[in-house]
Amino acid sequence: MFKTLLECTGARIGRRQWLGTALAGPMLPAWAQAQAPAYPARPVKFIVPFPAGGPVDITGRALAQKLAELWGQPALVDNRAGAGGMVGAELAARAPADGHNLFVCSIHHTVLPALNPRMSYDIERDFAAVSFAARFPVVLVVHPSLPVKSVAELIALDKARPGTLAFASAGNGGGTHLAGELFNMLAGTKLQHVPYKGSAPAMTDLLGNQVPIMFSDAPTALPQIRAGKVRALAVASVQRSGLLPDLPTVAETGLPGYEAYSWAGVLTPAATPRELVTRLSADIGRALAQPEVRQRLQDAGAEPAPGSPEAFAQLLHAERLKWAQVVKAANIRMD
Q1: CA separation for the pair 176, 54 (Å, rounded)
Q2: Can you name the CATH fold of 44-136+261-330?
Q3: pLDDT in tens, 177-206
Q4: How much is the pTM?
């Protein structure tokens, strides 16, 4: 009987303890929320490592404007250009990890480690991935006088005249340069690289037939394609672009497995609390879902593409490995 009574008493105590925990449980998050400081508590800074006006800057500004409305706090864009994006990255890596310092990175930051192994920061170790933000399609275009109308014809022409054809890019080691070198690797072509200081001067020389081929960012290529001044052969991404829905991909038209595009995403210093990273990722997703933000990015030749912190971290790692192979194979050096 003593044992039975003890078991019953224990059961009653256990139920009381469980009931108290169950009742208190739902109250804890509300209490914790009441005690936690509001976020953001002050203006949030978006460090953009490129000059104003480019696709990465436009992405950062579109996000900052919409997030300021959602947060009820200013969101400021701080352009810190230099050294191919390293100046802004170094500044962002040293910023306080409190969720008020965000870094708008690009494909360049996954290529730079292969170009400069002695950098003062590590893009994966020193940052926490927050969210992918936008893709910038790369388009393969040629001067109308070049006698090719498809990727397969371009490959055949190059192999018939190896080393005589050249392609322009927006700069050494950038996304459009790497797109061309990846093309050479997979197609076995010998297109010669001609780097320019930006997409605009590269397109000027393509229009003047100073160089017959260009791997171009979509914002630069679209007006010339629509005006009939250049011939678009294919888009470099794995799927067709909504900006040019009738244009096939490189993979579709003669080079299976090929994929290249530029992009922008958001990072924050590595020590930023995980709950803030999760909150920021959700807020960026909300901002990118707004019709006016999507339209602004699409007008700039970008495709909005939010993603989870985990997915973006995986992309950073995969891009770093992929482009390191291309840099090595093409023997790309920093200017």
Answers
A1: 14
A2: D-Maltodextrin-Binding Protein; domain 2 (3.40.190)
A3: 999 999 999 999 999 999 998 888 999 999
A4: 0.83
| DSSP code of residue 94 | T
Backbone phi, then psi, for 96, in 5-degree steps? -55, 140
Q: CA 160, CA 168: separation in Å to the nearest integer?
A: 20
What stretches of the chain show up as alpha helix (H) in DSSP? 2-24, 27-35, 55-71, 86-93, 108-115, 151-160, 175-187, 199-207, 218-226, 274-289, 291-299, 309-330
Nearest CA to 63 among 107, 198, 71, 37? 71
Q: For 207-223, how does the pLDDT look when each residue is reduced to its tens digit (9 = 90+)?
A: 999 999 999 998 889 99
- The listed CATH number (1.10.10.10, 3.40.190.10, 3.40.50.1860, 3.30.70.1450) that belongs to domain 139-235: 3.40.190.10
How far CA 58 is from CA of 43, 138, 197, 294, in Å, comes to 19, 17, 19, 12
Buried b (16+ CB within 10 A) or exposed e, 247-276: bbbbbbbbbeebbbbbbbbbbbbbebeeeb
Q: Give the Cα separation of 112 and 83 in Å (integer).
A: 10
What is the C-alpha separation between 146 and 153, in angstroms, rounded?
10
